[in-house]
Amino acid sequence: MPPYLNTMLSEEKITEFGIFNAAYVSQLKKKMTLNKHVSEIDNMAITAVLSTQILYDLYINKSIPALQENELVVLNITIIDESSGKRINHEHNT
Amino acid sequence: MCGIAGFYNFNLSTEDKAYTLRQMLTRIKHRGPDESGIYLSKAVGLGSVRLSIVDLATGTMPLSNSNDSLWIVFNGEIFNHIELREELLAKNHTFKTHSDTEVIVHLYEEYGPEFLNKLNGQFAIAIWDKNKQELFLARDRVGIRPLFYTTVGDAFIFASEIKSFLEFPEFRPKISAKALSEYFTFWTTLSSNSAFEDVFELPPGSYMTINANSKTIKTYWELPITKPNDYKYNTLEEASEAFESLFTDAVKLRLRADVQVGAYLSGGLDSSITTSFIKKILPDNLRTFSIGFTEKDFDESSFQNIARDYFKTQHSSITCSPKDISENFKDVVWHSEAPLLRTAPAPMSLLAKSVRDQNIKVVITGEGADELFGGYNIFKETKIKLFWAKDPQSKYRPLLLKKLYPYIPQISKANNTILKLFFGYKLNETTSPIYSHLLRWHNTSRINNYFSKDYKEAIQNYNPILEIEKQLETKFKDLDYLTKAQWIELNFFMSKYLLSSQGDRMAMANSVEGRYPFLDHRVIEFCMNLNPDLKLNGLNEKYLLKKLMKDRLPESILNRPKQAYRAPIQSAFFQETCRPI
């Protein structure tokens, strides 16, 4: 498992985010690791826990890098509609 | 195809508003890497990132009507824009471009919100009406293209994807415990909720108006429901003739583009049918794409090769390993913006990437056929259970269920007692509007047991299954079992999961547009007026399609047992070293 996913399923992160019961998730992980075949529900449960942890990390913790000025989209057209009239800039970043 | 974002009543300087909008657009630039633009007035901001498919030269957004009183940003395609343009020209409208976007703004000018009924397409629309000082948002009939909204202070904000909101000042998302409980039961939320508190999705088939005094949502289209004895198509002959004509037109419209259109060819019946119809219209040089798996339980390569050889397409395929899934899973969640219960979206993302790497921006796929023609096992399961419920002590009737899930050994190898234990849940509640899904949802809802104490407390009095049962009781009165089960699959699973997490998000993450002829609203309306026996005949699914395509597809594809599209989970996350070669 890639290190990031492993971290998201760690007892520390499960406890920190507070959505899931760390002991239950730990049991599920053990089952997934040791058993050759697990049930459909176990497969769905581990995917649900992992994806929710990632969702929390990306969207609530905002672990994604902040956008840099040079990453921002280049505007092909900017239309400023003011009471005094319409201003159109082509190929120009405001 | 594009991404859109914007706001209403956001009081900052023009420069600051422009900067915020650029940030919001940057978060969704994968949806439209070709160009971008913004419109700003005192009251509103509209932004677009564009994937150029129709009118590459002059379709830059935002666009306006002739007197600049209406401004639009738009995500999607209007497939019948040529016919609509002619209608508008006859009414003396004049156009500056050849794009479908400009047609929309003129349609709105001519007809108001009623214009939505004229569209054949997949879309999310935002129009600023300067005269009315009103923002108009709309979404296609079945929710192929996404549109989210929320409020921050006095400002109303909207975007194709929630991640845009992360760039809006003071937006502080919170996970909704109630929404999670719904995801862990239905694979999606019940209403317009997202996984985040106070972030909503505009429902499919509806539009919203926002002005200084109100915020209103209205429905312009609903999935038609036909009662038994009212079906319009009851014989194979009349249904075949009508479908052939409708579907040919649906495919023809979806081949309209100023770039090359490709197709997915999964080795299943649905994509083979769409490919067959495409080949009828465009016999040469069709590019097709497929994905296989290193794990043979999931792999359909042999059928894909049969289809490729039969149609003689220019075919490309990739192979996905469990490691590919785990390595891409973080990105998949980032793009789907929702909890997932399956890894199936990950290979779809890899497939879209391979399409884009070969410079194809548009693919036609077979999505919708399973829901509309009774293809899923849950329809057969319901039919068998209704038969079994008439004689609950029968030793033989539950054995019919074994055949449905050959890929789940716990079922395919189970004896009568185990089958009764597993499938017998609420067997006799045959009058429940959600009878078809009671067992599935009950089983899936066991994931809720993994919640922490705090989350369990937050949802302790909430039972989403009871909630939906109550909601559908009156609506489903006197309907046949298949119509009820189809309605649930189409409205929940397809619209809110399949077309989103597995469809739009995975394709658009790689700047690829999917087009779905089975989801042309005329095809949907036809199917909902089809006698159920022409969909699920005995336990033979997609009966009409199989009869129609009898001499037009390889026998091995036409009559292959239904195989659900799935991807590895356990080996992807836990047993990478044990996977078979």
Features:
heterodimer, A: 94 residues, alpha+beta, two-stranded antiparallel sheet, B: 581 residues, Glutamine Phosphoribosylpyrophosphate, subunit 1, domain 1, Rossmann fold, 3 domains, six-stranded antiparallel beta sheet, 22 helices, ligase (chain B), asparagine biosynthesis (chain B), Rossmann-like_a/b/a_fold (chain B), asparagine synthase (glutamine-hydrolyzing) (chain B), glutamine amidotransferase (chain B)
Strand coverage percent of chain A: 5-15%
Largest interface: A-B, 55 and 71 residues
Q: Which geometry of chain A do the CA atoms define?
A: elongated
Biggest sheet of chain A: strands side by side, in what order?
A: 1-2
Task: Tell me what you see in this structure.
The complex is a heterodimer of chains A (94) and B (581). Chain A is α+β, with helices and mostly antiparallel strands. Chain A has helices at residues 3-8, 11-17, 22-34, 40-60, and strands spanning 77-82, 85-90. Chain A has a domain at 3-60. Chain A is 50% helix and 13% strand. In chain A, strands 1-2 form a two-stranded antiparallel ribbon. With 581 residues, chain B is α+β, with helices and mostly antiparallel strands. Chain B contains 22 helices and 17 strands. Chain B is globular and about 75 Å long. Chains A and B meet through helix 3, helix 4 and strand 1 of A and helix 1, strand 2, helix 4, helix 8 and helix 15 of B.
